[in-house]
Amino acid sequence: MPILDKLTEQYSELWKAVIRPPRDVYEPKDLGPKVFSIEDRTFQRTDLTLTNPRGLKLVCSHFEPIICERVAERLPCVIYLHGNCSSR
């Protein structure tokens, strides 16, 4: 392979690593326990998958206080979206 071709290939791999880094691979158990405490509050995590109209899947985690510690039946929801190629 000529040196210019090799240099072009290496440059292409470098910018791809910055612009679109590889996605982390993990198991749901790596997210930690489904019920956990922070200071004196206890929360639960519910994992779900949503499918958009194009058939693409969005894998999500919903965090909320456990039922007996909820201050109201309906609570505000904050949606956090990761950046390019991030993991939840």
Task: Kindly report the average pLDDT value.
Answer: 86
Unreliably modeled segments:
none
Strand fraction band? 25-35%
* Beta strands, count: 3
Shape: elongated
User: Compute the gyration radius: what is it?
Assistant: 20 Å
Q: Major sheet, described briefly?
A: 3 strands, antiparallel
Oligomer class: single chain
Descriptive tags:
single chain, 88 residues, alpha+beta, three-stranded antiparallel beta sheet, 1 helix, 19% helix, 27% strand
Explain this structure to me?
This protein has 88 residues and is an alpha+beta fold. Helix content is 19%, strand content 27%. It is built from one helix and three strands. It has one helix spanning 3-19, and strands at 35-38, 41-51, 57-65. It has a three-stranded antiparallel sheet, with no helix packed on it. Strand 2 and strand 3 (57-65) form a beta hairpin. The radius of gyration is 20 Å and the shape is elongated.
